[in-house]
Structure formats: structure tokens, C-alpha cells
From TrEMBL:
Sorted UniProt keywords: Signal
UniProt cross-references to Pfam families, sorted A to Z: Peripla_BP_2
Species in which this protein is naturally found: Actinomyces massiliensis F0489
Annotated protein name in UniProt: Oligopeptide ABC transporter, oligopeptide-binding protein
Domain Fe/B12 periplasmic-binding as annotated: residue spans: 86-356
Coiled-coil residue windows: none
């Protein structure tokens, strides 16, 4: 019987069949293993989900809802909500900064914007509740109205001392609502914006406004440093209908004058009837001081002083060196000494020392109102703010670099 060659006849066919069968089995086994792997992964996922530690989940949730420790300008450590959506203002300066930085979170003012102010305040915010001022001796801060607004934090901005620091603690304890204070000094405005941004969870905006303030103040201080002592002007600041209410040198209301290198002629010793950081003086005192320039507050006598014989002998009046500061939506110089001073200090420098503070005040005014009030001024509106009652062409409106 002849032997079969391994490469011929049925042997070759059987080998091919076995090889083919093995190949098919390998493919099926591969698919089966793949399915088993998928099933194993699914089971592992289910097991992992079933074995999630509820305490771990609770920890993550509690972290999200946990309060944040915040240190305000007085050094008080206050626990704030991690996400703040409702803020109450405790004063005029806070009104201004909160409207600039957190209008949608603002639930009430210390005082509503008046008719002159409302043009620059969005209508949606004008009729918010009114609480009164916490600072000062007015005693008109309405705690019940604040509670009715259900704020998560109460913000005040301005000067402080240990007595007022204690008042903040007492208010916080009485209402069960966090109360914070941000220092309102003009020279540290940049830090104030950053600190308020930190408190409200708006760090990017706080940094943006802080950088703006820092750059502006640095430029003003650099320019003022070039004015020698013998070039510094003696200035009187007059308010109210008779122009005889004033502010005193060295007060928070006088910071704009100090920063541009102007000497206020009225000190504490000249005040007849004292008020906070100022008071009233006699016309005789003003005549005796005979200032080089006069700045009148909004709604004072700047537009009529030239026709008033009792003021006519003053050098400032004879030389047309008297100006009226803008007051819309708030005074640019002081009262309240708020963020408008960032614009006011530039304006003040430009009218007192136009060759040194050679600003394009129309452009600066438009930029400021866009940034802080979200209001786009026309050139005419900016000019009107810069020259509300000036008797002579104001150098503040000239276009320089």
C-alpha cells in the first residue's frame, strides 16, 4: 500500500481543516473574551458606584457650601458665604462701589439716588430699598429694612476707628448677617477694589479696577511731585448756598487737594460751627485768607459769585481762578469721599495746574463713566460735567496727551 505524502491526499485536507477550525475558534474565543472584558468593566463600574462612600460625597458637598474666612480692612475675620448673590449697602461710599462692582447683587442702598444722580444709574436699580447710613451720628440705619432684604453680607466703605469697629461687630451679632468694612482712603483705592472683589467672588473685576486706580493715582502723584512748595496754590473749598460750608485740611474729604499739591486755607482753628471733617466759616475768614483759587461744590455759588460784591475783592474771583466741581452722580471731590474722587483728583489738578496735569479730561471722563457706571457719555455730556458753572474757559477740557 503506497504511503501518502503529507502534502497530498486526505492528510493535506485534514491539516487544512484543522487549521481552519482553529482559526475559527480563535476568532470566536477573541470575541468571547472581548465580551467578557466589557461585562467585567461594567460590573466593576456598578460595584464602584455601589461602594461610593456617602461620607466622601457629603464632604464634597459641605466644602462647596462651607463659608469662607475673610479679613476686612479693620482686621476683623468674618465668615462669608462661598457664593454671594445678595449684598446690602451700609453707606454712601458703599453705594458707589457696590453699584460699580456688583449691581446685580445689590439688594438695597443706604440712600436712593436723587434726581440729579439717576441719569447715570440704570433704572432697574433706582428703587431698591433704602436703609440709612450706619456711619456717623444720624442713627437712621434701619435694621428691620435690612433684614427684610435678606442680604448675605452687609458692606460699608470708608474710614474707621476702634469704636466703629466695635459697632460693626455689634451689628453683625444683632442681625446674624456678616458685616465687612473696606477702607475708603483715596491713596489705597486699588487695594479697596481688590479686597471687595475678593469678598464678593469678583477677583478679576477687582484686579481690573484696582489696576486702573493704581495707575491713575501713581500718575497724579508723579506729576504733583514736580510742583515745588513755592508753586503750590492756597485754595478754598466752598459748599452750600452761601459758599461758606467747607472741609478742613487733613480730613478724608480733603485728600484730593492733598494729592495734587494744593493747600487748603481753612483748618480746624477757622471753623465756627463744626461738622464732620469740616463746618462753616465766616466770609471774613475767607477774605482774610484770600486764596489763590476757589473750588465750589455742586449747587453752590460758583455761577453767581462774580456778581456778588462781598466776594469781589478776592484775588481768585478777580483772576477768574474759581471753579465748580461736578456732582453727578456724586461729588468728584468729597461728600461723599467715594470713587468719583479718582476722576475728581485729575480734574482738580487740571484746573489748578493745567501745565502739569495736561490731561484730556473729556476722554478721561468718558472712560471713567463707562468703566464705573456703564454709561457712555457723549462729548457734550462730558463737557457739561467738566464745566458746570465755570466763569472762564476751563483748561480741563483741552485735548492733550
Amino acid at each position: 500500500m503506497p504511503l501518502h505524502s503529507p502534502h497530498s491526499g486526505p492528510y493535506r485536507s485534514t491539516t487544512a481543516l484543522i487549521a481552519s477550525t482553529v482559526t475559527r475558534l480563535r476568532k470566536k474565543l477573541g470575541k468571547l473574551l472581548a465580551l467578557m472584558a466589557v461585562a467585567a468593566m461594567a460590573l466593576a463600574g456598578c460595584a464602584q458606584s455601589a461602594n461610593v462612600d456617602p461620607e466622601a460625597t457629603g464632604t464634597a458637598t459641605s466644602i462647596e457650601s462651607a463659608p469662607v474666612s475673610f479679613t476686612d480692612s479693620t482686621g476683623r475675620q468674618v465668615e462669608l458665604p462661598r457664593k454671594i448673590t445678595r449684598v446690602a449697602s451700609a453707606g454712601q461710599l458703599a453705594n458707589m462701589m457696590l453699584y460699580a462692582m456688583a449691581p446685580d447683587e445689590l439688594v438695597g442702598w443706604s440712600s436712593k439716588p436723587d434726581n440729579d444722580t439717576t441719569k447715570y444709574i440704570d433704572p432697574g436699580y433706582r428703587d431698591l430699598p433704602e436703609y440709612g447710613n450706619l456711619y456717623g451720628d444720624s442713627g437712621d440705619f434701619d435694621k428691620e429694612a435690612v433684614l427684610a432684604s435678606n442680604p448675605q453680607v452687609i458692606v460699608d466703605i470708608g474710614p474707621w476707628d476702634e469704636e466703629y469697629k466695635g459697632k460693626l461687630d455689634s451689628l453683625q451679632e444683632d442681625l446674624g448677617i456678616p458685616v465687612i468694612l473696606i477702607d475708603g482712603a483715596l491713596s489705597t483705592s486699588g487695594d479697596a477694589f481688590r479686597l471687595l472683589g475678593q469678598a464678593l467672588g469678583k477677583t478679576d473685576l477687582g484686579e481690573q479696577l484696582g489696576a486702573y486706580a493704581d495707575g491713575l493715582i501713581s500718575d497724579v502723584q508723579t506729576k504733583a511731585a514736580t510742583i515745588s512748595e513755592d508753586q503750590q496754590l492756597n485754595v478754598y473749598y466752598g459748599e452750600e448756598k452761601d459758599g461758606l460750608s467747607t472741609i478742613v485740611a487733613g480730613s478724608i474729604h480733603a485728600e484730593t487737594f492733598d494729592m495734587v499739591g494744593a493747600r487748603l486755607v481753612v483748618g480746624e482753628d477757622s471753623i465756627e460751627r463744626k461738622q464732620k471733617d469740616g463746618g462753616t466759616v465766616s466770609l471774613t475768614t475767607v477774605l482774610d485768607k484770600n486764596p489763590d483759587a476757589i473750588i465750589f461744590g455742586p449747587d453752590s455759588i460758583g455761577s453767581t459769585v462774580a456778581e456778588d460784591s462781598s466776594w469781589a475783592s478776592l484775588d481768585a474771583v478777580k483772576n477768574n481762578r474759581y471753579y465748580t466741581v461736578a456732582g453727578d452722580p456724586y461729588n468728584w471731590i468729597g461728600r461723599p469721599p467715594g470713587l468719583n474722587r479718582l476722576l475728581g483728583v485729575q480734574w482738580l489738578g487740571s484746573v489748578l495746574y493745567p501745565e502739569t496735569f495736561d490731561y484730556d479730561m473729556v476722554a478721561k471722563t468718558k472712560d471713567f463713566y463707562t468703566l464705573f457706571y456703564r454709561y457712555d457719555l457723549t462729548d457734550d455730556e462730558a463737557e457739561a460735567l467738566l464745566n458746570p458753572a465755570s466763569p472762564s474757559p476751563s483748561p480741563s477740557a483741552s485735548s492733550h496727551g
